[in-house]
Design a protein that fits this description.
alpha+beta, Glutamine Phosphoribosylpyrophosphate, subunit 1, domain 1, Rossmann fold, six-stranded antiparallel beta sheet
């Protein structure tokens, strides 16, 4: 993986500073290009063609490119281009992207199977073309004030320009609503994310910025629904297997995360069936309610991989390191075990396949099951149940049944997609009003929800929001800190619309989530892996809050509220209730800690 950066004027010192701050994304090589119109910078993690021929920026006639990602079908595209006269001097996918853009213009991205964030500078047309992959696996941030246009893989690179960046109330609201900052928002008013499946065309002469969408998932789902269901079912396993094997292409060692859950285990099993002496990786925790190491050992032994693992604990140093590395407040605490897993994986390999997105695509979340169950619960019964469920005492253990029941009943009367977002929410709308000193924004303005009531609409809600800006952002943040490239087979663009197009019964059947994926996995893995209870990749936040001096300091000391964005007295009420076991406010307090710590480092 790599880091890209650039802006629309010439300044060697600043482009060097931008690339330097992203060195962790690409420690193997660095390069810049400057002329009177642009400055471009690149940090390289060498994966394909490790020779100097892979150096970036790379050039073809009037074009220059900086690229972060991998195009897994680049050899097929290269063959197509060679058949019409294009010649290549390297073994890289980067050179293929350049030639593809020269041949097909911005339509070239429709041919790519992969993950990408790249910028192509056309010196003749005086334009910058920047594109982000279909599902947002790789990030792009940008700043534009009407004259100055700046972009980078990380916000911290943009901040090297020392421009005035003002906190955005919409970003703050989104963070405390969903624990990440979604849509095209960032923590800053004048910085934005390029959304997944979108591209930017920037005219260097007129300074006109045009954003366009290059992929429509809903339209692709509709196309697949014209195919007979039996044919679609037969296609899924073949495409999944091919998606996994395509992601093994590299000139460096490749491994796979193996948590012991069905998603990562199936990916590892497909690889092991086709490749000998393959390495898999997992971590364990001393707290058994969070530890899944035994399942990963069972899976590894069954599929016969060389399995590597360590018992590790998240300590205050790691918490400070990772929050300090964040571009903006990010509240998904699973980023810490993901970082530790990436760290031990990087000791052996440079690339690792990940099981992320299996839940969103195949229907694996408890909230999807809750959507199904909600149809059978009369509103009066739900209302009456709230009283009794709220009497269940809080617990420091992982996600308990009591916690799930409280979430299920909270906001039960809302529409399908709003109810789903509220189930995922950390602070309710009413709680956010109490928390925020000013600038409160209602839920509906943050994430507008349509009226469609279907499991597919809930999955699309997650894919467009939670997956892109929480799950994938977490993996990018954690893996890039140790210069590890993470690849996501479940987001192959051939697979996603195909699976989503299937009737609900192939996703959730009775009380079984991911029904189709588990049916496929039964061919590769033991039943105790395929049909085990889903546990997720979480950490004991509640006990951290009770025992960590660092966390308590940033929650209780008034000086960390000098940003004047959060209600100190309200937070202390939450803190007191949690410490004295009157309520489980761990998730709310965790977001407050992350926010205060991040703000103390970035004001």
């Amino acid at each position: 993986m790599c880091g890209i950066a650039g802006f629309n004027w010439k300044d060697n010192a600043v482009i060097e500073a931008m690339t330097e701050v992203m060195r962790h994304r690409g420690p193997d090589d660095r390069g810049t290009y400057l002329d009177d119109k642009v400055s471009l910078g690149h940090t390289r993690l060498s994966i394909l063609d490790l020779s100097p021929k892979g150096h970036q920026p790379m050039y073809f006639q009037n074009l220059a490119i900086i690229f972060n990602g991998e195009i897994y079908n680049f050899q097929e595209i290269r063959g197509e281009l060679e058949s019409v006269g294009y010649k290549f001097t390297s073994g890289t996918d980067t050179e293929v992207i350049l030639a593809a853009y020269h041949r097909w213009g911005d339509k070239c991205v429709e041919k790519f199977n992969g993950m990408w964030a790249f910028c192509i500078y056309d010196r003749d047309k005086q334009t910058l073309f920047i594109s982000r992959d279909r599902f947002g696996i790789k990030p792009v941030y940008y700043y534009f004030d009407g004259q100055r246009f700046i972009f980078a893989s990380e916000l911290k690179a943009i901040k090297k320009h020392h421009i005035a960046l003002e906190t955005d109330p919409a970003g703050v609201n989104f963070f405390f609503y969903q624990k990440y900052i979604g849509n095209d928002l960032t923590i800053y008013k004048n910085c934005r994310k390029l959304k997944p499946s979108h591209s930017i065309l920037f005219d260097l002469n007129t300074k006109k910025l045009t954003i366009s969408k290059h992929y429509d998932l809903e339209a692709e789902i509709a196309k697949r629904q014209d195919i007979a269901v039996d044919d679609r079912l037969e296609m899924v396993e073949d495409i999944l297997s091919d998606a996994v094997l395509k992601r093994l292409i590299a000139d460096v060692p490749v491994g796979s995360f193996l948590s012991g859950g069905v998603d990562s285990s199936l990916i590892s099993a497909i690889i092991a069936k086709n490749k000998k002496d393959f390495d898999t990786f997992s971590i364990g925790f001393e707290d058994q309610s969070y530890n899944e190491l035994e399942f990963s050992k069972i899976a590894a032994e069954y599929i016969k991989t060389a399995h590597h693992y360590e018992y590790m604990d998240v300590n205050e140093d790691i918490i400070q390191q990772i929050i300090g590395a964040m571009d903006e407040p990010f509240g998904d605490s699973s980023v810490f075990p993901t970082y530790l897993l990436s760290k031990i994986t990087r000791q052996k390999v440079t690339v690792s396949l990940s099981g992320d997105a299996g839940d969103e695509v195949f229907g694996g979340y408890d909230t999807y099951m809750a959507y199904k169950l909600a149809k059978f619960v009369p509103a009066p019964v739900a209302g009456l149940s709230r009283f009794f469920v709220n009497m269940i005492p809080p617990s420091d253990k992982k996600v308990t049944l009591g916690f799930k029941m409280k979430r299920f009943l909270r906001g039960f009367d809302a529409g399908c997609n709003r109810r789903h977002l509220n189930w995922m929410a950390t602070f309710t709308e009413a709680n956010r009003k109490d928390l925020l000193v000013n600038g409160f924004i209602p839920d509906e303005q943050l994430v507008p929800c349509g009226s469609e009531d279907s499991l597919l609409s809930v999955q699309l809600n997650d894919i467009h929001n939670y997956l892109a800006e929480d799950i994938l952002k977490k993996v990018d943040l954690a893996s890039m800190q140790v210069s590890l490239e993470a690849r996501v087979p479940y987001l192959d663009y051939r697979l996603v619309p195909l699976v989503l197009s299937l009737p609900d019964k192939y996703k959730i059947r009775c009380l079984t989530t991911k029904w189709l994926l588990k049916r496929i996995a039964d061919k590769y893995l033991p039943r105790q892996i395929v049909h085990r209870t889903k546990r997720g990749f979480t950490v004991p936040v509640s006990s951290w809050i009770r025992t960590s001096d660092l966390i308590r300091e940033f929650l209780a000391n008034r000086k960390f509220y000098e940003h004047n964005l959060l209600n100190y007295d309200y937070v202390q009420q939450l803190f007191d209730a949690h410490i004295n076991n009157r309520a489980d406010n761990a998730r709310q307090l965790w977001l407050t800690f992350v926010f205060n710590y991040w703000m103390s480092r970035n004001r």
